[in-house]
UniProtKB/TrEMBL annotation:
Highest taxon listed in the record's lineage: Bacteria
Record PANTHER family: THIOESTERASE DOMAIN-CONTAINING PROTEIN (PTHR47260:SF6), UPF0644 PROTEIN PB2B4.06 (PTHR47260)
Record GO terms (molecular function): thiolester hydrolase activity
Record-linked Pfam families: 4HBT
Residues covered by the Thioesterase domain: 40-96
Organism for this UniProt entry: Vibrio quintilis
Lineage, opening ranks: Bacteria, Pseudomonadati, Pseudomonadota, Gammaproteobacteria, Vibrionales
Name this protein carries in UniProt: Thioesterase superfamily protein
Family matches, as InterPro entries: HotDog_dom_sf, PTE-AB_protein, Thioestr_dom
Length: 127
């Protein structure tokens, strides 16, 4: 659902993650009615999906393939249909195949949601 571009995956969310100078990854996401939960608001499941995707891409940029083991999301403010939000994530620490990350979704300078997650790299690889 999140992965790939429109040519390879027509259902893609079209996220294009970049890395900033501080080691954070980020992408912009246009909130549309297609992703609506309550009238006029981005669905909470989409918020969780966006945060998970940012953290996964943070690991990809470090050549790490790992699976989400825990994801705790705090919903701070609503994201309205028609807004453009910034999704970002950073690696906080790692130890023996376990990775702890933080992610945020912001609209302008306001935090919409934040998440903490733990990812685990399986010994035999992801696939």
């Amino acid at each position: 659902m999140v992965c790939g571009d429109i040519e390879n995956n027509p259902d893609s969310l079209r996220l294009k993650f970049e890395e900033d100078a501080g080691g954070h990854v980020f992408s912009w996401f246009d909130v549309t009615a297609r992703h609506q939960g309550y009238d006029g608001l981005l669905h909470g499941g989409m918020i969780s999906t966006l945060l998970d995707a940012a953290m996964t891409h943070c690991l990809f940029l470090r050549d790490v393939e790992a699976l989400t083991a825990e994801l705790v999301v705090r919903f701070v403010a609503p994201a309205c249909i028609g807004s453009k939000v910034k999704v970002s994530a950073c690696l906080m620490k790692q130890r023996r195949g376990v990775y702890w990350l933080e992610g945020t979704i912001c609209y302008q300078d306001q935090i919409i949601a934040r998440a903490d997650a733990k990812f685990i790299a399986p010994k035999g690889g992801v696939v």
